[in-house]
Amino acid sequence: MKTMETVIEVKNLTKKYGDFVAVDHINFTINKGEVFSLLGPNGAGKTTTIGMLSTVKKPTEGDAFILGHSIVKQKYQVRKLIGVSPQDLTADDELTGYENVLIMAKLFGYRGKEAEDRSKWALEFMDLWDSAFKKVREYSGGMRRRLEVAMSIVHNPAVVFLDEPTVGLDVQSRRHIWELIRDLKKNGTTVLLTTHYMEEAEELSDRVAIIDHGKIIAMGTPDELKAKIKGDRIYVTLKGQDHMDEIIRKINDILPNSTNKVDGQILIKTESSSEFLPQLIKILSDYEVIELKVVKPNLEEVFLELTGKGLREDEGGFDRFKYMRITRGARR
Amino acid sequence: MIQEVYTLTIRELKKWLSRRGTFIVSLITPLFWLGLFGKSLNFASMFTPTNLPPQYSSLLSQYVDQQLLNLFGTTNYFTYLASGMLVVFGFFQSVFGGTNLVFEKRLGYLNRLLMTPTPRSGIFLSKVFGTLVRILFYETVLILIAYGLGFKFKPGISALNIILAGIAIILVAIGFVSIFAAIAFNVDNVEIMFAIVNLINLPLMFASSALFPLKQMPSWLQEIAKFNPITYAADIVRHNLIGTPVSNYILSWIILLVISVALFIIGMFVSINAMERS
Ligand SMILES: Nc1ncnc2c1ncn2[C@@H]1O[C@H](COP(=O)(O)OP(=O)(O)OP(=O)(O)O)[C@@H](O)[C@H]1O
Ligand SMILES: [Mg+2]
Prior knowledge:
The complex is a heterodimer of chains A (332) and B (278). Helices cover 37% and strands 27% of the residues of chain A. The two termini of chain A are 41 Å apart. Chain A is α/β, with parallel strands linked by helices. Chain A has twelve helices and 14 strands. In chain A, β4 and β5 (69-70) form a beta hairpin. In chain A, α3 packs across α4, α3 runs parallel beside α5 (141-153) and α4 (112-125) packs across α5 (141-153). With 278 residues, chain B is an all-alpha fold. Chain B has one domain (2-40, 73-276). Chain B is 78% helix and 0% strand. The longest helix of chain B has 29 residues, at 120-148. At the A-B interface, α2 and α3 of A face α1 and α7 of B. The site of magnesium ion has 5 residues of chain A, from α1.
């Protein structure tokens, strides 16, 4: 590990809005060629962190270094090294995809033929060359997201920041983008990704930092993080809540301290679900069970374990405002 | 820096050209004004009763012309108004040029620009240049239409006269696009932005010599109009295009130049400051 080149180094990075601490003394380093994810729920401070790292938000405290350049004191050098794909869509929908990418190439100092070649490369890389000369207004959601990434990689940056690159997309489009992010990594690009989809973090990342209320509460490879919860989880949903405490008591008699109530469900933590299931079924046979779910360790469970709440708890309602921002690209 | 400004200016113009509708819509207002006020307000016939014997009629019309000449410096109010409208139109377009930054901000495009190494001054300047190119184009169209409607250039007008008139309009535009860009950089809300625009636009237009001569105004309004760059630009444009006398031509240029450069510098400074903040 020591021989690896550090690309991003974040030291005590903090952002306050008035008294509200959006990002709270976070620390991490990212090595060359790594895909590093910030995983956290809405409002965790992911976008604020990206904003600071990409020099458009001033940290209240702390600093970060991109290839040794301070995001506070050497903004200009940092801007040349990074490519950012913001959470909100930014491409100009009155222009074509190609024009959008070409503008970025030129803003990063490429000229003439070279700028054109790089734009073509970026669009081909993101599987958009076929639609390159269509107006962005005619793009689908997935295409627009891919265009955002194309715009952020056209100058071959050392680091790419992808802020929720698949938010609001269907599974297929999402997988497509995952594929392309893996290709980016193969290309040697360092990627800092934010997401609130645990599958996304798990699928793509070399390392993950779980962030909540502006603090990093756990960090490591997906396997290391999953090792934090030993064994499997079993969720039982009953018809009615009447016998819940009774059942929980019965299970805890067999597996001490294994079981409690979470969100109206019974949650059982066990080393091995296959060994315990027969006994559990015997207990449950006297009650009306609606659902019984065995969950292998995953990052969602890690988050639940660490914070006592689900990653997407506040996504229950349809957030019309956020939906508008995502689909139309309108900022708050 | 030059490449960045060029790239972003071209972007503005491409967007402008791709929106065919706005081109026509933008010309409707000034044409409407020219038609309504310029063409229909025919003072000479207004003061000439139709049943007068011919010899008196021509005398009266001479008298009216004399009065118009005293008042407007020309016997043709349409020409007077049209030359003023050229300045007002440049002013309006520059205001909208700056204002549309609010949309760019809301659409997140500005945010992306700020994450690139583009110099912040370049982002500001591209806004100014994009607006100026548009204005020059519209002004050319407008003067041709006005000519078609009966605009009377002064006898012996030279290319230099036209260029000087153009420069005066550009100076006004530079000043106002800078100030309104600066305001837009500091306002997030579209409604607030338009409230500010409305608050400033109409008073500035009326408190100037663009539509009526200063000496026709109440004295307090005259005082305000003296600080209005539109007044000086309108005087200069008229002097060059239709030959209206100006009390102090050189001083008008100096005042216009000073106000515009000051607005430009303040606008640029405030804009860059807003981009660096957050
Ligand atoms: N300009 C601002 N002024 C005040 N508070 C802000 C501002 N921007 C963000 N916040 C607050 O800071 C917190 C972190 O916001 P941030 O956008 O970084 O979250 P996030 O992790 O990106 O969430 P999401 O998944 O919804 O994008 C939120 O509580 C948000 O309300
Ligand atoms: Mg976010």
